[in-house]
Amino acid sequence: MPGVAPADGWLVAQRRNAEDELLRHVAMMRVDFGAQLDAWPTEQVREVLRSERYFQAVHLPSAFQIHPRNYALGLAAAAEQAGARIFEDTPALAIDSAGVRKRVDTPKGRVRAGHVVLAGGAQLGSAFRAVSETLLPVSTYMAVTAPLGEALGEAIRYRGSVSDPRRGGDYYRIVKGDRLLWGSRVSTRISPPRGLAGTIEREIHDVYPQLGMVKVDHAWSGLMSYAVHKMPLIGEVMPGVWLAGAFGGHGINTTAMAGDLIASAIIAGDDRWRLFSSYELVWTGGAWGRAAAQMLFWARRLQDAVAESLAQRRDSALRRAAEHASREAAERERRAAEAVERRAAEEAARAAAEESAERFAAAQRTASQMAHQAAVQAKPPRRIAGAVAAQKVELRRAACAGGEAELGNEAAYGFDRAPAGSEEKPAAPRQQIKARRKAKRS
Ligand SMILES: Cc1cc2nc3c(=O)[nH]c(=O)nc-3n(C[C@H](O)[C@H](O)[C@H](O)COP(=O)(O)OP(=O)(O)OC[C@H]3O[C@@H](n4cnc5c(N)ncnc54)[C@H](O)[C@@H]3O)c2cc1C
Questions:
Q1: How far apart (Å, rounded) are the C-alpha atoms in residues 424 and 421?
Q2: How many domains are contained in the chain?
Q3: Site residues for ligand 1, CB cut-off 6 Å
Q4: Which domain, by its residues, includes 437?
Q5: 187-239 pLDDT tens trace
Q6: How far is the C-alpha of 386 from the C-alpha of 407, rounded, in Å?
Q7: CA dihedral angle for residue 190, residue 194, residue 195, residue 201, rounded to 10 degrees
Q8: Which of 11, 67, 162, 247 is the pocket-test mutation for ligand 1 (most atoms within 8 Å of CB)?
Q9: Is residue 390 assigned to a domain?
Q10: Residue 381 located in a structural domain
Q11: 433/410 Cα distance (integer angstroms)
Q12: The pLDDT value given to residue 85
């Protein structure tokens, strides 16, 4: 069909943290119904839906979406091609179902037929009260935003449709490249609420604050119909009068299935529609029923809001704790690295000080050796020369006194005994000579 543009995938993302519950649901759907679906953990969900509102999700890869208006136009064209005549804007005001040939009254004419199919949903009204009183009209709301540019693709990286499982939760997808088609909430109020566009703008902002306040180009509401037992009503309500209704919560896929079942029942006597006969027509309670449904809806909405708020608080507490722990770990690492650096710097300073002390000592040793050598090479020879001169004088005196040989030996001996380079004065031979001379005389 032209313009139906099917797109694959559906992600049902939870707005509360309930992993076990989700895993049980996925296992049940796989085992009991053979459904093809996967459970996604929170991290995987937040990779494609950049919002802290979401936790785990069920992914249905084989689910798909279509452009419903183009689908309706395509069905109408196919019906006309097959010989059907369509009269738009023509309400059925009354239906006489008593005879074999049924009669349908419209403002401008009357239609007679062997079979009548009631497919008007909750708007059927007075045309067939026995059925319309079993259908609860429920409004739901939609909007399409102005083009949002690349930011939209950054915030929503999933290209299928997204919804959350709350009562009257959000459902949306990207259309026309960068517009957001957003639906949400349900109500038993039939007329559209005031300020619908602004309400939806705030809802989008609450989930994707990074988009700023988006602008809604067009917002509208529509009616769905629900049965009390929430199952579709499909089958023959009396001979020749068929019903296909109460598809609220099930959607257009089930309407096509109902159309097939009823068509093949009328044409070929196929009685598979009886699979639905246990879901009977149950009076919805009129205005009181609508009020009760609204109260129930509000109560459940409140329940969901409390569960979500608790989940959000727990999540932010966990996030704060994780951030705190990671900050502390980083601080510990920083301090440890600082301590290592400080120790290394101290070690390097100590080694440098030791090396410098050693160099200083070595320089001192070298300086003192040089000083010593200089002393040996320069000073002592002057003293030695003095001493040698003195010795020569003494030796001359001793020679004059006649004890030359003996004294010469003694003097030489006494002189030689002074250590090389010693600064100690050599023993003066004069006293010795005097002492020996004295001893000789005596
Ligand atoms: C805003 C909104 C969003 C939705 N989003 C989705 C979605 O994303 N996916 C999904 O699968 N489903 C969605 N649905 C639900 C889906 O549209 C319905 O389940 C489906 O259209 C039901 O089909 P139906 O033929 O039973 O009733 P309807 O589509 O309501 O058609 C009934 C038709 O009968 C006409 N009618 C009623 N009484 C009379 C009368 N006396 N005489 C002549 N004509 C009469 C009405 O004018 C109407 O045109 C959405 C519904 C709404 C309102």
A1: 9
A2: 1
A3: 91-92, 119-121, 123-124, 127, 140, 142, 171, 183, 222-224, 245, 247-248, 251-253, 255
A4: 377-441
A5: 988 888 889 999 999 999 999 999 999 999 999 999 999 999 999 999 999 99
A6: 19
A7: -10
A8: 247
A9: yes
A10: yes
A11: 9
A12: 95
Ligand 1 centroid, distance to 251 Cα (angstroms): 9
Report if residue 230 sits inside a domain: no
Separation between Cα atoms, residue 328 and residue 429, nearest integer Å: 89
Question: Whole-angstrom Cα distance, residue 161 to residue 90?
Answer: 34
Instruction: Express each pLDDT in 327-362 by its tens digit.
Output: 999 999 999 999 999 999 999 999 999 998 898 888
Residue 411 lies in a domain: yes
Pocket test residue of 4, 224, 250, 276 for ligand 1, highest count of atoms within 8 A of CB: 224
* Residue 137 CA, ligand 1 centroid: distance in Å: 11
Q: Which helix (H) or strand (E) holds 236?
A: strand 233-238
Nearest ligand 1 atom, CA 92: 42
CA nearest neighbour of 120 among 220, 243, 236: 243
> Using CA positions, which residue lies closest to atom 21 of ligand 1?
252
Copy the structure tokens of residue 158.
């999933």
